[in-house]
Amino acid sequence: MAYVGLRKPYVAKYDRATKTYSNGFKYSHAVSFNINPNYAEASLYGDDMQVEYEKAFTNAGITLGTTSTPIDAAEVMFGHTIDRDLNKVIFKATDEANYVGVGIIAPEKVDGANKYVALLILSAKFADSAESFTTKGDQLQFNTPSIEGSAVAADDDGNWKITEVFDTEAAAEAFIKNYLNIEDPTVEFNVTQTLSHVTSSFDGDKIQEGETLNATLTADAHYDLDTVTVTMGGVDITATAYAGGVVSIAEVTGDVVITASAAKITHTVTQNLTNVTSDFSDPTVDDGASLEIVLTEDSGYSLSTPTIEMDGVDITATAWDATPQKITIADVTGDVVITASAS
Question: Where a domain ends, among 179, 198, 222?
Fold first, then answer.
């Protein structure tokens, strides 16, 4: 075997009673990994010669060097108390290290082909690493941590190490993570909706990576959707993610921001008046609003019954009151056209 590297150390807590792994994590980046098996030996001599010889595995010294020590190691491996929010570790004299399983990938060349060896130490206990700090001098120097421990048999069958060769790094990594019961962490992204006179069918503020996001946007009564923008991971994806009042993202890969506003619906009020004046001068009226207009004929003229249309439909019969010469529309739902003349 010709090893040509070292990658992706994983660690998980090992329960020797149930033979199960839990609380697994990736242990930074690998720098070095040394395994030194130890054996007990015994010889039996008779008739001036060795007649029996036994050699049995007892334990293995393990040294793991990495670029850094993750906070999870303090809790899972060494039994310390951690405050993840403050990134703080509390060391107590009574802290006791836990048994852990360790997995790592060693790439190798076999007959010119790249292979990937998944190596598992099934049950080991480590101690906190020694710490050394040096001031920065004329030349830069990296000081990387390493931890030392001892591996023992993980079960009654004496198993303490497993190796398996794979054609791809991904397959080797999957084998290690599956054996140590390590699941990929759930990645969540924020969903921020800034809505003005708009409601959304999506009522959460988080969504998991890879999930589909669908949100139907509905304008408030008497409003129309006006502007909608959608960004994901800071990139504007409106053109592909929004159509016809629906935001649809097939696979979420970043924080999503939906900004939508609706504009008040208005209708035009057109007054075609001959020898008549009106007390309403605005060119528009809000959708759903009431409209009241009093018509007054010019001096010396007599007002004929006007014609009142809304959205192209004649509503004179319900909207016109001749006695006060008043137009009343309780709920405007379309453009209004008033035609009135006096003779």
Answer: 179
Cβ–Cβ < 8 Å for 198, 225: yes
In the beta sheet, which residues pair with residue 243? Answer: 246
Give the range of the structural domain holding residue 317, as residue numbers without chain letter.
266-341
> 231, 70, 51, 225: which is closest to 147 by C-alpha?
70
Residues 281 and 219 in one domain: no
Question: Partners of 199 in the beta sheet?
Answer: 218
pLDDT of residue 138: 67
pTM: 0.57
Q: 137: which 2 tokens?
A: 């001098």
Total domains in the fold of the chain: 3
- What is the C-alpha radius of gyration for the chain, rounded to an integer number of angstroms? 40
Burial tier of 107 (Cβ tally within 10 Å: 0-12, 13-18, 19+) = middle
Residues 148 and 213 in one domain: no
pLDDT along the chain (343 residues), means of 10: 82 95 92 89 78 82 90 92 89 94 92 90 89 68 80 92 95 96 90 98 95 97 97 97 97 97 97 96 96 96 96 96 95 97 95
